[in-house]
Design brief:
Layout (H helix, E strand, L loop, with lengths): L5 H21 L5 H25 L6 H4 L4 H11 L6 E6 L9 E4 L8 H14 L12 H19 L1 E9 L2 E8 L12 E6 L5 H8 L3
Antiparallel strand pairs: 1-2, 1-3, 3-4, 4-5
Helix pairs in contact: 1-2, 2-4, 2-5, 2-6
Length: about 210
C-alpha cells in the first residue's frame, strides 16, 4: 500500500486556494478572454481536487489510473471501486484530550460541488478552453460567465472545511480534516490540516459515517 503524504496534500490544498482566489478576480469580468481564463483556472482546480482523491485512494487504482491527468476519468475510476473518496464538507469538533475521538459533523452538499456536478463542470471547462470550431454551434459565453461564478462558490463550499478518510492498512483508517481561510490580507490564517487516528476498522464503518448526511 502506498504511503499517504500529508505534505503533498497540503501543497495541493495551497495551490487550490491560490487558484480559486485568482479565478475569482477573473470571474468578475465579462470579457471573453477573462471568461476563458476563469474556466482554465476552474479546470486546473478540479484536476487538483481529483488528485487529492488519488493521494488518499491510490491503493484502489492501478498504475495507469494513478497517473491519469483527466479529472473526469479519475472520478469515474474511483466511483467504480469505492463510494468514499471525495472531500466531505464538514465541521470537526476537535478533541481536547489525546484519548478523545474527534466528532465529525457533515454539512451536506446543498451548497457544495457534488461529484456529479464536478464532472459536468470539468466537461464545460474543456469546451471553453478550446477555440470555437466554425462548424459547431456557438458557445454561450455569457452563460459560461454566470456558470463559472456558481461553480467557484460550490468549490469553495466543498473544500473550505472538509474531511477525507484515509486507509492506512487493511484494518486501520484515519481522518484528515482541512480548514482553509479564503480571506486575502495580513490576518489570513494558514490552512489547518490535521490527521486524526480513529476507531474505524473497516470501510463499511467509514461509509456509514460519511453517508450520514
Amino acid at each position: 500500500m502506498a504511503e499517504f503524504s500529508k505534505e503533498k496534500y497540503a501543497t495541493i490544498v495551497s495551490e487550490i486556494r491560490d487558484r480559486i482566489l485568482s479565478a475569482e478576480i477573473f470571474a468578475n469580468e465579462k470579457n471573453r478572454v477573462f471568461i476563458e481564463s476563469t474556466s482554465l483556472q476552474i479546470r486546473k482546480i478540479l484536476e487538483l481536487i481529483a488528485y487529492l482523491s488519488v493521494l488518499v485512494n491510490s491503493e484502489k487504482l492501478n498504475h495507469k489510473q494513478r497517473h491519469e491527468y483527466h479529472a473526469g476519468k479519475i472520478i469515474d475510476y474511483l466511483l467504480e471501486r469505492t463510494t468514499i473518496f471525495y472531500p466531505l464538507p464538514s465541521h470537526m469538533i476537535h478533541p481536547s484530550k489525546e484519548t478523545e475521538q474527534p466528532v465529525l459533523i457533515p454539512l451536506g452538499f446543498k451548497n457544495a460541488l457534488t461529484h456529479e456536478q464536478f464532472r459536468d463542470a470539468y466537461q464545460l471547462c474543456g469546451k471553453v478552453v478550446h477555440a470555437q470550431h466554425p462548424l459547431k454551434p456557438d458557445l454561450d459565453i455569457q452563460g459560461v460567465f454566470q456558470k463559472n461564478k456558481e461553480i467557484l462558490l460550490k468549490i469553495k463550499s466543498l473544500i473550505k472545511s472538509h474531511t477525507i478518510g484515509i486507509r492506512k492498512s487493511e484494518d486501520k483508517y484515519t481522518f484528515l480534516h482541512v480548514e482553509i481561510d479564503f480571506t486575502n490580507h495580513e490576518t489570513t490564517k494558514p490552512s489547518f490540516i490535521r490527521e486524526y487516528n480513529t476507531q474505524i476498522y473497516s470501510e463499511k464503518q467509514l461509509i456509514e459515517i460519511f453517508n450520514a448526511v
